[in-house]
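Go through this one:
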Amino acid sequence: MIGPSSSPGRLALERFLRDRMAVAGLVVLVLAALAAGIGPLLLGIDPDRAGDLALAPPGAAHWMGTDIHGRDLLARVLIGTRISLAVGAVGALVSLMIGVAWGVVAGAAGGRTDAWLMRVVDGLQALPTVVWVMLGMTLFEAGLAGRFAQRWPDALPVLRLAAMMICLGSVSWLTMARVIRAQTLVLRQRPFLLAATALGVPPVRWFLRHLLPNLSGVILVYLTLSVPSVVLYESFLSFLGLGVRPPQASLGSLIADGASQLNPIRVRWWLLVFPAGLMALLLAALNSVGAGLRAAFEPRRVDGLSA
């Protein structure tokens, strides 16, 4: 029973917990994260170690079968899930930091500053996202990768993965910036923000104490919704061979490996079905959680759209 003095956060939590699809999606994400985190340790299998049974179908020894090199596919899928979720989370955080800063400055400043900042957003949205990420990865390879490959070759895969996270986050903030800017334009006309401005509250305190708490719900919603897009971008790049490289594995690279084994003579279905099925399940769970958070924090907007 929700009391009349319940806080907005508690009301949003109550609405979220009543959404069965959102709760189910959250449970799936938690279980997937736990399995990806501790599953390879419990299995005791090196996902990069080649075995004798190449392309073995699922069975008692290998629950998801093996790949062309005899590596256990279950261990590879768990590691791939870990990398895909990590790329999605870090990319979404990078998108969050850039988008919130850009949108707040544009909405709070207004005038020519707002116009110029939004024209930059328009220009960036006109560029193909994949081309932008490919350019960033190419610059990384031409610049830092050569130096690190000579001095610290073991650190190169981690640095390449970090570069991909930053590149993906740097192109995923545009929608976040537009949403935050629109919310800032509305909130800055509220009496409490007008009073804070009239009293000469410093900009940092004005943002942290008065504006940010009222943007937290919107930020959380669009942060959750941006994770699936980053995961899809990473999977697409890995599918093209531009993302995660062997011996590392992501769900996108595993799907690419499975697709390469499809032929009219013999179909090794397990190489494609398991990573693709898990990818679809994770994306559905992320979208369910994002939709549930949006319905929890913005019930009037969602009711208006469904009416």
Q: What stands out?
A: The chain has one domain: 10-44+66-306.
